């Protein structure tokens, strides 16, 4: 007997605008969120930006006559973990991954593929129980359940649909079967799989259904959600298919070419320990979902780059590398740290007049010039050090931060990293710190610690932690899934960089 749904009305709930999540639209959406998030009226400015640049339809509200594109489409960005949901956190706040995306540290293809593979049920974004579902649950043992997240957690749902689809298609290939899935097969045989151990059960059921031409009844009409999942998967380079009539999906030629690498990613993400689970104490907000899903996790590899991605882009060179290529730094000139030097465009500003908004268009060079993820990490560290009594300095030509604390100096080099460039950027940071430490030693005999700071989540079993802490006696700061993490054997380092005044999120209210 094929397994039934875990509860009446179970579905892979998904934003019903995923079909418009193209590269251009997603870039514009997240760029506008970052650009206007601190204006007097962000929604007004973002909506006018959309209209002026023909990004989304105006979506004029009947009651106010005002455009509401931001209200309608922002959920795409939060669904993909690129911004925190404004329903959970009032201020518009891009996640580390969202910031890296508009900086082109990670490409569109990498973002949608990574997030498709990581997206799971339960999650902290799909939490609301609809009136229709609430009515269905009234006849079950879950009538008083508080949220969809809690319901899925207690019914044993632990599934990543993209990985399930990939694994089923791969198994069909290996068995010499027709390696295509249609909407009906996904709904009948994949949707009831609530854990990845059910994958072979789904494959066997599909093969039997095809051989016997069994016409099974669909127990629950989840077509719209699964259609959106088709749109989501087809936005990645791993899948091909069509949405014209029967909705069919298969692994693309590119997916076949890198199947071994994707298999490894999927195998790691099937592990139950990699699943985010709700915390009863934060059930009302689930902010940790966005911190985790929106992180750059160095334990999850990125897919290989396509040739089309590399044309006209250089994802692996940062401003500090270009600077090193062209100049020889001979002296460190410290100044008191002021975040306004990094984010002058984010100071309080008046709402843009409508006629001026039309002149603002998406510019890919904006993110490359600003390096916002790198700079936000600097501000996060500086804020923590200020709170803990440190004296914070920087030098725009050399060291990112130098902090004086209890008769010690802490020299900090920040690096924006992805799984692809991690080793290269780490080596660059080590060389820079040694160079800057030598230059600083010419003018200061105060004991000094060298600190590498990475704008990503580093798993606790990573080789780089003992390499830095034990072998080199360097300190490590990372942008953890739920806070700034400190790895050091030195007590003073831990005291200086430990957050004592926790904000709603790391990136909220930086300026």
Poorly predicted ranges? 346-370
Rg measurement, Å: 24 Å
Structural class of the secondary structure composition?
alpha+beta
CATH fold descriptor of the domain at 309-497: Trna Endonuclease, Chain: A, domain 1
Overall 3D form: globular
Spatial order of the strands forming the largest sheet: 4-5-6-7-8-9-10
N-C termini distance: 58 Å
Keywords:
511 residues, alpha+beta, 7-stranded mixed β-sheet, 22 helices
What does this 3D model show about the protein?
It is a single chain. The chain is of the alpha+beta class and 511 residues long. Among the domains are: 157-275; 309-497, Trna Endonuclease, Chain: A, domain 1 (3-Layer(aba) Sandwich). 42% of the residues lie in helices and 9% in strands. It contains 22 helices and 10 strands. The strands form 2 sheets. Strands 4-5-6-7-8-9-10 form a 7-stranded mixed beta sheet, sandwiched between helices. A 3-stranded antiparallel beta sheet has the order 1-3-2. Helix 1 runs antiparallel to helix 2 (42-52), helix 8 crosses helix 10 (199-212) and helix 9 packs across helix 11 (223-234). It starts with 22 loop residues before the first helix and ends in a 14-residue tail after the last helix. The model is unreliable at 346-370 (pLDDT under 50).
